[in-house]
Amino acid sequence: KAGVTQTPRYLIKTRGQQVTLSCSPISGHRSVSWYQQTPGQGLQFLFEYFSETQRNKGNFPGRFSGRQFSNSRSEMNVSTLELGDSALYLCASSLTGTGYNEQFFGPGTRLTVL
Amino acid sequence: AQRVTQPEKLLSVFKGAPVELKCNYSYSGSPELFWYVQYSRQRLQLLLRHISRESIKGFTADLNKGETSFHLKKPFAQEEDSAMYYCALTGATNKLIFGTGTLLAVQP
């Protein structure tokens, strides 16, 4: 099976812009979670989508949003970018949404905000 | 508050030495605990979870509810164990709360 894929792998934006990141889960997986990884804060949960519905949300401002499509692919959007949004954004997919299922991580998208 | 604490940013040991990566947690309820590993230039991947009670690549971890700890241990470190290790917990959902990670460096 192909693993989780994320596009693009690298992105450079300037403050105030917006950005959309994409994640394609492992075939058959219906849950997609997003994490932000920074040297200072480590790995922080952004949100989880299951069957096109946001099911869990972390403590991030409303500038961070996401969605999931009927084929389980997911996108996350960050509007009005700030310097502090520079990070590695990881997505992870898992089979279902009942209880905890092993999450398989993608390679990440490295976002740099100038 | 839900929190995972990994007190060591870096742990350096020699090949063949025992390894213990510390993890303490704070959670109201019964969490599931995990260790994730990220080798150089590879993806973050699950190493082990407490409910499976397996030994993976020689690593074990015991959940101590009294001390709220889930330390990762290996009796004899190998150079290929060098990686970033993250302790994480969840409360029966897919929302993982990660510690800040410990970089394990195994010297030859």
Architecture overview:
The complex is a heterodimer of chains A (114) and B (108). Chain A has 114 residues and is mostly beta strands. Chain A has strands at 5-7, 10-13, 19-24, 31-38, 42-50, 53-57, 64-68, 74-78, 87-94, 104-105, 109-113. In chain A, a hairpin with a 5-residue loop joins β7 and β8. The radius of gyration of chain A is 13 Å and the shape is globular. Chain A starts with a strand and ends with a strand. Chain B has 108 residues and is an all-beta fold. Chain B is built from no helices and eleven strands. In chain B, strands 2, 5, 6, 9, 10 and 11 form a six-stranded mixed sheet that branches. The mean pLDDT of chain B is 92. Chains A and B meet through β4, β5, β9 and β10 of A and β6, β9 and β10 of B.
Count every beta strand of chain A, where a strand is a DSSP E run of 2 or more residues: 11
Largest sheet of chain A: 7 strands, mixed
Task: Name the helix and strand elements of chain B from N-terminus to C-terminus, one letter apiece.
Answer: EEEEEEEEEEE
Strand content of chain B: 35-45%
**Termini gap of chain B:** 40 Å
Greatest interface by residues involved: A-B, 27 and 19 residues
Give a nutshell description of this structure.
The complex is a heterodimer of chains A (114) and B (108). Chain A has 114 residues and is mainly beta.
What does the secondary structure layout of this molecule look like, with pairings?
The complex is a heterodimer of chains A (114) and B (108).
Chain A: E1 5-7, E2 10-13, E3 19-24, E4 31-38, E5 42-50, E6 53-57, E7 64-68, E8 74-78, E9 87-94, E10 104-105, E11 109-113
Parallel strand pairs in A: 2-11
Antiparallel strand pairs in A: 1-3, 3-8, 4-5, 4-9, 5-6, 7-8, 9-10, 9-11
Chain B: E1 3-5, E2 10-14, E3 19-21, E4 24-26, E5 32-38, E6 45-49, E7 60-61, E8 72-74, E9 83-90, E10 97-98, E11 102-107
Parallel strand pairs in B: 2-11
Antiparallel strand pairs in B: 1-4, 3-8, 5-6, 5-9, 7-8, 9-10, 9-11
